[in-house]
Design a protein that fits this description.
197 residues, 7 strands, single chain, elongated, two-stranded antiparallel sheet
């Protein structure tokens, strides 16, 4: 899979915006996953990934908008799912779970991305606590299926823990982070073992 840098995404989004102007259409992007991780790292100035395969958006799009996204992909010679909502098929119910541990998390926020100003696209991204929740859940689910967690999820969590200066996961003062670690106890144990190596 091809990785894209922040500037690559800016160019593709500008191209999509031009197409939306021609169609008199507007969309909203609420980014989760790798692109949101890049945004958090850039805005909070901490060391993390500087590239992502795609932009995972919390919003669903019409077939017409998907065609425009595909046109951008063709022009830039990238995968047609460079902007997608594929994750929704597997995770929507889990992220809207009644325990409120993901989207309902009190500290979850959508942060406007002010670095990219586009007339027909509104962009925001999940804050660092929200990403922490999603990454913990991803690791927890992999472990429940006796599968090794994805490397990028582990790497992202390590970067977030480092940002919060959390070396010892049993002595976490941040209430939201502590709540999440306790909720996803298998992921916490996995991270504790990983960090000790």
């Amino acid at each position: 899979m091809n990785m894209h840098y922040y500037e690559d995404f800016k160019d593709m989004l500008q191209c999509l915006n031009d197409k939306l102007i021609a169609e008199d259409a507007h969309i909203e992007i609420k980014a989760i996953g790798g692109f949101a991780m890049m945004c958090n790292a850039m805005m909070l100035n901490f060391d993390s990934r500087n590239a992502s395969v795609d932009i995972d958006s919390y919003h669903a799009y019409t077939e017409r908008i998907k065609l425009l996204i595909g046109e951008v992909a063709t022009e830039f010679e990238v995968n047609h799912d460079w902007l997608n909502t594929d994750w929704r098929d597997n995770y929507t119910n889990k992220y809207h779970s009644e325990d409120g541990i993901i989207i309902g998390l009190a500290s979850w926020k959508w942060i406007p991305l002010e670095d990219i100003a586009l007339s027909n696209i509104t962009i925001s991204y999940a804050n660092i606590e929200g990403l922490f929740a999603m990454k913990l859940r991803a690791i927890d689910e992999r472990l429940a299926q006796d599968e090794e967690p994805r490397l990028n999820d582990v790497t992202d969590l390590k970067a977030i823990l480092h940002f919060f200066e959390l070396g010892n996961l049993d002595k976490v003062s941040n209430v939201s982070i502590r709540q999440l670690l306790n909720h996803f106890s298998d992921a916490k144990n996995y991270l504790t073992n990983t960090l000790s190596k």
